[in-house]
Automatic annotation (TrEMBL):
Name assigned to this protein: Na(+)-translocating NADH-quinone reductase subunit F
Domain of life, source organism: Bacteria
Statement: the UniProt record of this protein carries the keyword Flavoprotein: yes
Keywords: FAD, Flavoprotein
Lineage of the organism: Bacteria, Bacillati, Chloroflexota, Chloroflexia, Herpetosiphonales
One Pfam family per UniProt: Fer2
Length: 117
């Protein structure tokens, strides 16, 4: 089972294939996902310290390029398949919003087209 470490918080294990955004939220990590995990809003941005996946979905690549974001990834487009150490960049507690956004589906949406797989 992959181990996810968030900043200086304790690490936790998740089932392989779990969507990163859901793994984080299910373990009490403060993270936004305003579009519900559909690679449309970039609020689920994370920065990796270790274990960044090489594979990226076409939707994530397009959205990051469109927003001119570098050095970050979208947690909604990442599957937990190995150990990772990361930090969420946008949080509910700092946003002033009433909730993080609708819960993302268990499977990647939109249906993934993988680049660099």
């Amino acid at each position: 089972m992959p181990q996810i470490t968030v900043g200086s918080q304790a690490a936790f294990e998740v089932a392989s294939g779990t969507r990163l955004v859901n793994a984080l939220e299910d373990h009490g990590v403060d993270i936004l996902h305003r579009c519900g995990g559909n690679a449309r809003c970039t609020t689920c941005r994370v920065e990796f310290q270790a274990g960044e996946p090489q594979a990226i979905t076409k939707a994530e690549s397009f959205k990051l390029a469109e927003a001119k974001l570098t050095g970050v990834r979208l947690a909604c487009q990442i599957l937990c398949e190995h150990d990772m150490q990361l930090q969420p960049l946008q949080t509910l507690s700092a946003s002033g919003l009433p909730d993080p956004g609708p819960r993302p589906a268990d499977e990647l949406t939109p249906a993934p087209e993988w680049l660099n797989a």
